[in-house]
Amino acid sequence: MAENRDFFYRRLHSLLGVIPIGVFLIQHLLVNHFAVYGRESFEQAAGFIHDLPFRIVLEFVVIYIPILFHAILGVYIVFTVKYNNRRYSFFRNIMFTLQRVSGIITLIFIAWHVWETRIAIGLGNAELNYSLMENILTQPFMFWFYIIGVVSTTFHFANGLWSFLVTWGFTITPRSQRVATYATLVVFLIVTYIGVRAIFAFAYGA
Amino acid sequence: MADKTITLIITRQDSPDSSPYEETFKVPYRENMNVISALMEIRRNPVNANGENTTPVFWEMNCLEEVCGACSMVINGQAKQSCATLIDQLEQPIRLEPMSTFPVVRDLAVDRSRMFDSLKKVKAWIPIDGTYDLGPGPRMPEKKRQWAYELSKCMTCGVCLEACPNVNSNSDFIGPAALSQVRLFNAHPTGQMNKGERLEALMEDGGIHGCGNSQNCVQVCPKGIPLTTSIAAMNRDTNIQAFKNFFGSDHVY
């Protein structure tokens, strides 16, 4: 293995979190949001995505490989930290720790979510339709598991967007970083609303 | 006032390899004491709170005016300079510990040589030697000099490394101080002639990508150096350098 590859891997990790994973996340939650308009509406939208040409290639290139890379390097990053929030309870240090905690929660959530939906469908144990999600989300435990999972994912995305802007050298001054904090907070609220609203639609009907 | 005392609980360690232990001291209070004057009092009369004779507590100090960085230690949980920390502003009992990021030499003295190694690694100097007289360098605008002066205040005290969650024994991250020094020397009109070399050093393993943006460093820096601004600026510069290396020019300077 070549030496001094860490810089490249860490930059790739930061990039993949936004493109394509972040873009996919928004797309995924938007499609789910069709559940709010009713059963047919959701199945039509999900059907469109499902019937995209070269779907399996798209899934691997846009979703599986980037998330797997991001997750494996991410877990390594999480466990090389000496957390010190008790001594240094500054806002950014709290966000730093929350980013790592939410990353782990998101990984557990995604693993379960993919197992229960995509893999189950792939193995022929489930069908891609409204009822699949309805059956999952009407169970109280799974409802809360999904709420926590989705909020953790959107937080990880929005706060990751903030550090993406720093890592790539877009926001350098303290002022621009502060404005980015507010901007990513708005992103968090909007994306969370879209995601959570769909969960409510599945659980309690449109 | 004569019988007023201050209590210090000091984490001590006899040698680099021995295990640490705590020892409590009571020191007579004087007005305007700093942590160092309390330590000097212990050195003058090395008797612990139980009245037992003990070895004097060992620590490092130099300038006594917060410009050398030698007397950094963890005071009531926060890494600070013991010369600039006043007893009157501290809650009692006062807990003194060595900075945990660095290997302990003895008691409160730590070995900060990794910081010096980092400065060597990133070439934190300006080469001006030639085989002939190179003449005067380019001039620097006064406003830029004033800005650069703020970055030059770094005294390699180690407080930013102590506060950084990513600088620890599991990671090879170089830490905030050296990253900011690259910005300082790359901004200098003569120093920028070696800009590429310094950026390349930051892109090696343990370099700038170890930063996780917890931004503790800028909060704790005793000299108020805009460390996170420096890190973000170096993020931009190393990215541009990386693109140049891959797509662009066939020379790096």
UniProtKB/TrEMBL annotation, chain A:
Record Pfam families: Sdh_cyt
Compartments in which it is found: Membrane
Transmembrane segments: 12-36, 56-81, 93-115, 143-170, 182-204
Transmembrane helix among keywords: yes
Keywords: Heme, Iron, Membrane, Metal-binding, Transmembrane, Transmembrane helix
GO CC annotation terms, alphabetical: membrane
Record-listed heme binding positions: 28, 70, 113, 156
CDD domains (alphabetical): SQR_TypeB_1_TM (cd03497)
Chief location of this protein within or outside the cell: membrane
NCBIfam families referenced in this protein's UniProt entry, alphabetically: sdhC_b558_fam
Protein name: Succinate dehydrogenase / fumarate reductase cytochrome b subunit
Taxonomic source organism: Sediminibacillus halophilus
Automatic annotation (TrEMBL), chain B:
Endpoints of the signal sequence: none
GO biological process: respiratory electron transport chain; tricarboxylic acid cycle
Keywords assigned by UniProt, alphabetized: 2Fe-2S, 3Fe-4S, 4Fe-4S, Iron, Iron-sulfur, Metal-binding, Oxidoreductase, Tricarboxylic acid cycle
Domain 4Fe-4S ferredoxin-type positions: 145-173
Cofactor dependency: [4Fe-4S] cluster; [2Fe-2S] cluster; [3Fe-4S] cluster
The keyword 4Fe-4S is annotated on this UniProt entry: yes
EC number of this enzyme: 1.3.5.1
GO molecular function, one term: metal ion binding
Family recorded in the similarity comment: Belongs to the succinate dehydrogenase/fumarate reductase iron-sulfur protein family.
Name of the protein: succinate dehydrogenase
Source species taxonomy: Bacteria, Bacillati, Bacillota, Bacilli, Bacillales
